[in-house]
Amino acid sequence: MNDIHLDIQQVDKIYGTAASAVHAVKGLSMVVRRGEIASLLGSSGCGKTSTLRMIAGFEGVSKGTIKLAGRTLNDLHPVKRNVAMAFEGYSLYPPLTISDNIAFALKATKHGAKEIAEKVSAMAEMLEISDILDRYPSSVSGGQQQRASLGRALVRDADLHLLDEPMGQLEPQLRALLRGRIKHYIKENGVTAILVTHDQAEANALSDRIAVMEGGYLQQFDSPEKLKDQPNNLYTGTFVGEPPMNTFSAKIERNDTLVRFILDQGVSLSYNISDFSPNVIDAVLALQHVVVGVRPYAIKRHADGMRATVVANHWLGDQTHIAATLAGHSVILVEHDRATDKVGDDIYINLDPDNIHVFDRDSGAAVSHGADIAR
Ligand SMILES: Nc1ncnc2c1ncn2[C@@H]1O[C@H](COP(=O)(O)OP(=O)(O)OP(=O)(O)O)[C@@H](O)[C@H]1O
Ligand SMILES: [Mg+2]
Q1: CB 237, CB 357: distance < 8 Å
Q2: Quick one: how many helices (H) and strands (E) in the chain?
Q3: Mind listing the pLDDT tens digit for each residue in 96-136?
Q4: How far apart are the C-alpha atoms of 61 and 10, rounded to whole Å?
């Protein structure tokens, strides 16, 4: 489980010529273990599909190396890579039925006709497309084509499965159902997979680790829990998590015992220097400007807390989202109980030292997380 399976080192992707170059992937290094499900998450254009296409061999690698199961892939023909890919566009073979599309890559293998038929039928059942197996791609819906394409990729015995937005066309209920089944299938069959998705809930539910990308750069590659608790930088901190982390730009002041993060309008967050672990306090105090981050569910009400004014209160059936303003900043709180606060009411909130993240305002790098704080 812990051995290196896919090894990407210092990979760049540059499209076009020098005059019109697009630098889509920059110095990407990441290692995926055998049996692991990794997700690529990031905003549109950050380089997710380019990364998958280089691994699959549909795009050349401009710089760096990609190895899979010990073999260097850079110059290997796509069909020799033993990589299965489900595309964003479905690219099924139009003259073949859905059943034959799914079976296609199996026909060139040692599997007998009966075994292939069984595998196709089980895959179709798992993906809820048993009823369209005899139809042709042109006569089924986009979501059905997408599931057929996913089935065609998953059914193969490949060293690596690349799934680019494999459920983007499906409604949330079906996605949620298939998500569980696909994860079970992947883990049962010892498959190694890289999934591209825009859906954080999907990335969280399916992945062992998530690679957050932005602007062609890998920002962080960690477990969903670690991305939440210890984001490397402000980008990851605010991109991962829904609703996003609240952030307050602040100036730092200190005296012998206290560190103060001064927000606008004279509001300040005061902490004992001894609240911080000795390894991080020097780094915090070395900064003049920081961004203090706190997750919406980590803001607590406290009678002695700071005053914030409610601007919206939404009960979602299992949690309340309260939007408020605090010293001119907007802040979102998530609470499990149904809150009765009305627009215009004042609430009093605390940002416990255990729950704050401190980032260097200039570089965005994380300097301290609640978990680093001494207690
Ligand atoms: N064939 C190409 N020629 C030139 N530029 C390209 C090509 N393919 C992608 N790009 C550019 O490379 C960058 C990364 O694109 P890529 O398709 O990898 O993004 P992505 O993260 O998959 O985005 P999305 O979430 O929208 O699918 C973008 O700026 C895109 O315009
Ligand atoms: Mg893409």
Answers
A1: yes
A2: 9, 20
A3: 999 999 999 898 778 899 999 999 999 999 999 999 999 99
A4: 10
Nearest-CA residue for atom 28 of ligand 1:
45
Q: Is 230 in the pocket of ligand 1 (CB under 6 A)?
A: no
Q: What is the pTM of this model?
A: 0.93
CA–CA dist 120, 115 (Å, integer): 9
Ligand 1 centroid vs 230 CA: distance in angstroms?
29
**Any atom of ligand 1 within 6 Å of the Cβ of 54:** no
Binding site membership of 97 for ligand 1 (Cβ less than 6 Å): no
Q: Which domains does the chain have, with CATH numbers?
A: 35-48+78-239 (3.40.50.300), 246-372 (2.40.50.140)
- If you take atom 17 of ligand 1, which residue's CA is the nearest one? 49
User: Where would I find the H helices in the chain?
Assistant: 48-56, 98-107, 113-126, 142-154, 172-188, 200-206, 224-229, 234-239, 278-285
CA pseudo-torsion sign 89, 95, 99, 104: negative
* Distance from Cα 232 to the centre of ligand 1, integer Å: 25
Q: pLDDT tens, 61-99?
A: 999 999 999 999 999 999 999 999 997 666 899 999 999
